[in-house]
Amino acid sequence: MTLLLDDITLTYPDGDGRLTALDRVGLEVPAGTLTAVVGPSGSGKSSLLAVAATLVTPDSGRVVIDGTEATGLSRADAAALRRRAVGIVFQQPNLLPSLTALEQLQVMAHLGGGRPRDVRERAAELLDSVGLAGQAHRRPHQLSGGQRQRINIARALMNGPRVLLVDEPTSALDHERGAAVLELIGGLTRERGTATVLVTHDRGQLGVADQVVEMVDGVLAEAGVRGGTA
Ligand SMILES: Nc1ncnc2c1ncn2[C@@H]1O[C@H](COP(=O)(O)OP(=O)(O)OP(=O)(O)O)[C@@H](O)[C@H]1O
Q1: What's the whole-model pTM score?
Q2: Index of the ligand 1 atom closest to the CA of residue 50
């Protein structure tokens, strides 16, 4: 199992007590498949992604990424595992205004090392696979919202992650562009064999998912399978 969340409980301080954001959550995501997480605002979806990304340590339970148990690692080792094996697509692209599309991707890889020539080739190939081969020289203000989100996705794939975590990628896009971005994420998942978790409010677009789970008050339940009714 490429991504395994086993019996995860996460609480936050809340006044005198604790608020349970994740309540004994279990999730298995095989390589090359996409799991969509739906659920109301405040139900714990972002917390789930943060735990899967090793950005937040749960109170109890295990996170296993590509065979390595992340829970219990030192901060430095968790960061190294994250760099090697996890790609994160945040809701807002947060692209650097002065860099071209190609450079946004190159910067990501330089942080992790790698020969400049290989990095450039990989960046160009990824831009091509998200449909932006012709836009490599453009800066963020010269691109549409949908194009910026595609760069955001390509950037997360630069270091060849085994696990891809995507938070609300369509919230700033209209229906049609949102659908195209979800199709793209589904296609990349299968092509690159990532274990992908996608948080979305958009229940109309879940056909791309192999598994749909629903978060309600920190509890995760199966909501349907590919082609299901969720
Ligand atoms: N750092 C924090 N400290 C305290 N409580 C928090 C913190 N982060 C989130 N929470 C609370 O934990 C619960 C789950 O929040 P989370 O952000 O995971 O929900 P969500 O489903 O992603 O919501 P949304 O769809 O609105 O983004 C909420 O009740 C929220 O108020």
Answers
A1: 0.92
A2: 18
Tell how far the Cα of 174 is from the centroid of ligand 1, in angstroms.
Answer: 25
pLDDT, one tens digit per residue, over 132-188 is: 999 999 999 999 989 999 999 999 999 899 999 999 988 878 888 888 889 999 999
End-to-end CA distance of the chain: 24
Lowest pLDDT segment from 41-50, 174-183, 188-197, 220-229: 220-229
One-character DSSP codes across 28-47 = EE-TTEEEEEE--TTSSHHH
Q: Is the CB of 74 under 6 A from ligand 1?
A: no
| Cα 133 to middle of ligand 1, angstroms | 37
* C-alpha to C-alpha distance for 100 and 225, rounded to whole angstroms: 39
Q: Which domains does the chain have, with CATH numbers?
A: 3-92+156-225 (3.40.50.300)
Measured between alpha carbons, how far is 205 from 134 in angstroms, rounded to an integer?
A: 28
125 Cα: distance to centroid of ligand 1 (angstroms): 36
Instruction: Indicate whether residue 19 lines ligand 1 (CB < 6 A).
Output: yes
